[in-house]
Amino acid sequence: MQTQRQKGSGSELAAVVAAAGGRHRTATEFVEAALKAAILEGRLPGGTALRQEELAEAFGVSRMPVREALRQLEAQALIDFVPHKGAVVTEISAEDAADNYAIRRALEPAALALSIPALGPEDFGRARDLIAEMDTDPDPGSLGELNRRFHMALYSRAGRAKLLALTEQQLAAADRYLRFHLAAKGREHLSQDEHRALLAAAEARDVAAAVAVLHAHLDRAAATIAEFFRTRGG
Amino acid sequence: MQTQRQKGSGSELAAVVAAAGGRHRTATEFVEAALKAAILEGRLPGGTALRQEELAEAFGVSRMPVREALRQLEAQALIDFVPHKGAVVTEISAEDAADNYAIRRALEPAALALSIPALGPEDFGRARDLIAEMDTDPDPGSLGELNRRFHMALYSRAGRAKLLALTEQQLAAADRYLRFHLAAKGREHLSQDEHRALLAAAEARDVAAAVAVLHAHLDRAAATIAEFFRTRGG
DNA sequence: TACCATGAGATTGGATCCAATCAACACCTG
DNA sequence: CAGGTGTTGATTGGATCCAATCTCATGGTA
């Protein structure tokens, strides 16, 4: 993939640290959250080598919380531990994107089907607001999060905590791909029409139709990203 | 659930250490693998508090690799970090079991459908052998692993590495429940008939039939375990 | 010139040490 | 005797230190 396995150039790390404003109980959680967000949002692209000492200095902590945070990111398949070279941010490849969509195609319809009967007006309102926000928000960087929140709003009443957590994790991972190809193509690739159709089917409590729309939505997104990787030589 | 949040009684930990024979590159990996196996196999039941110092002594290492291993287990939702109380093995509840089955019901049919066209005679042979082994193996403790390997054999040609990894992880988690209720009920609850029907449908390359059998298989298992929890007051 | 050995530097894995925080228990008081 | 309170011990989170190992550059040699 012709990736330069360079270390993060310092200033990038500073930006990562600065962007991580949330309050966390422990330094480990803080570092983990910041790195996770940076990776998922594409600020730390695949192939970036994260050296512990450098991270420790950038975050103003010792290497220990950094190590524990990296371990957790490893368990989430966001980085690979390469002995004596550092923790390397996992590459995003056409193969990985296809995997991600295969998983989402399995999980999300299940969550949607469980959730639809229990959805209330406030959920539909939230979903509608998020669609509108995606239409108007000028920042392409936040589209991924809005998209994720829209999907999760429709699944939120599934009543299966672990299923939802897993789904959200996969959606977050999808952010990496989405952002990747939104940057190259246009925001029209967000398929707002399909979002609206999905919401309409959910409001009509038509589970079969909603699942069909969701399947088509995910398949189209997968095909688009696959095509993107093909033309780009991924 | 009337769980005693006692610390592992030392001798239990010794058994966990002794059972972990595999060779691993680092102490962290060794500790993680040993604890993970012990939790999934039920040797460390839900609610057990794992204190770092105790683990460190039992494994003959310092607290540091223990801490990193615990962090990774936390990321896998096998333990919860409770400040000043230790890492607590997550409870297995009726709710968790239902979640696990909902996830498997979404993932496994997808993996199966992708895999069936690519399965070869050697895969069918392996699956057949595993069914036979489940019939004859006298050790009820190994039934879970055999069951997992049987299922994975049928999914193995799906060609989606992450989907398979996630599926296997959920199957491993299911071991905890399976072992739990196999101990109380009988091995006939393994549904060997359904296993055979699943294999037959796969050999016939009948994706729809195989998926239907798998759905029924998982639904029946979920119902059985739900009933088990209900009668047992879980 | 190409290739291999050697040594210095860098990086991680692990151990030990220190500080902060919480839980439990004993004690005092109304 | 019940309830609140202070103190002690235990346990974790984090920092610093040490050892092992790999990488990479340098230089020597065929």
List the topology elements.
Two copies of one chain form a homodimer.
Chain A (H helix, E strand, L loop, with lengths): L10 H9 L7 H14 L8 E2 L1 H8 L3 H13 L3 E4 L3 E4 L4 H22 L5 H16 L6 H13 L5 H24 L7 H12 L3 H26 L2
Helix pairs in contact in A: 2-4, 3-4, 5-8, 5-10, 6-7, 6-9, 7-8, 9-10
Chain A binds a DNA duplex (30 and 30 nucleotides) through α4.
The number of helices of chain A is: 10
Q: Could you state the oligomeric state of the chains shown?
A: homodimer
Give the spatial strand order of the biggest sheet of chain A.
1-3-2
Q: C-alpha Rg of chain A, in Å?
A: 19 Å
Tell me what the structure shows.
The first copy, chain A, has 234 residues and is mainly α. In chain A, 67% of the residues lie in helices and 4% in strands. Chain A is built from ten helices and three strands, in the order H-H-E-H-H-E-E-H-H-H-H-H-H. Chain A has a three-stranded antiparallel β-sheet with strand order 1-3-2. In chain A, a hairpin with a 3-residue loop joins strand 2 (79-82) and strand 3. The A-B interface holds A 28, 64, 67-68, 71-72, 74-77, 95-96, 98-100, 102-103, 105-107, 109-110, 114, 160-163, 166 and B 28, 64, 67-68, 71-72, 74-77, 95-96, 98-100, 102-103, 105-107, 109-110, 114, 160-163, 166. The first copy, chain A, binds a DNA duplex (30 and 30 nucleotides) through helix 4.
Key descriptive features of the protein:
homodimer, 234 residues, mainly alpha, Arc Repressor Mutant, subunit A, Four Helix Bundle (Hemerythrin (Met), subunit A), 2 domains, 3-stranded antiparallel beta sheet, 10 helices, 4% strand, disordered N terminus, DNA-binding
